[in-house]
Amino acid sequence: MAELGLNKTNKFFMKNFSNLVLIILLVFLVGCNKKPEKKEIIKVSENWESLFNGKDLTGWTPKIKGHAFGDNYNNTFLVEDGVMKVSYKAYDSFNNAFGHIFYKNPYSNYRFRMVYRFTGEQILGGRPWALRNSGIMIHCEDPKNMGINQNFPVSIEVQLLGGNGLDKRSTGNLCTPGTHVKYNDSLVTEHIIQSSSRTYHGEQWVNVEIEVRNDSIIKHFINGKEVLQYTKPHIGGKVDYNMEFWKSKENQPLKSGYISLQSESHPVEFKKIEILELH
Q1: Whole-model pTM?
Q2: Domain range for residue 150?
Q3: Each residue of 198-238: pLDDT tens digit?
Q4: Residue ranges of the 3-keto-alpha-glucoside-1,2-lyase/3-keto-2-hydroxy-glucal hydratase domain (predicted)?
Q5: Which of 50, 84, 111, 232 could disulfide-link 276, Cβ–Cβ 3.0 to 4.6 Å?
């Protein structure tokens, strides 16, 4: 009789254990087939501000060597077909008339972007190194304080170069008129640091963007790809004007400044000039 009771108990246990395993398996299968809930992706809009209206030079003021701030000598900077142009149509010879056109407001933390291209031929009298050469100057000194015969503002230059049709020639390089930076954690006093960009020959449009974080880090992007970054921009090195003043400012961090675009003897065009302030 005891053996019979034990067999009944075992059969009851095995039957209920089998049911339990089946329930667990069903729950597992249902769970595997259940589609995960879609998470809502919130897109953060970026409020880029246009710095160029495509109609005229509103907000921009030229400073050309040999001429007062505000004198657009020989109509060097003009607007045609929605594009800001560096033009030498009214020049007989360049005669070292290095120029810059400054936007009205200084900035500190921001992203800046635009599209550029080189066109035509270099004006007679331009330096060989200035062939298909321009730049975006950031953290510039106040242009109102520049000397009449000053070549370049004390600044950080994002150098823009076009290919000559033959040689490798990167763009988005760094030049340092009156400044120094740290590159790969080391102080660099050379005037030029080359980027890793490819060469852009001909008259093709190229996208350039700069990310500026006060005096901490600066990054250069060409056609969406980061090509150079460096840190700690500060005053230092050779200047061609007001030398004693700048010597007294040596090693002072560059935390902010004006933005300007260059005219260096080769026709160049700029469009879609925009800024996004960072906080």
Answers
A1: 0.84
A2: 49-277
A3: 999 999 999 999 999 999 999 999 999 999 999 999 999 99
A4: 48-275
A5: 111
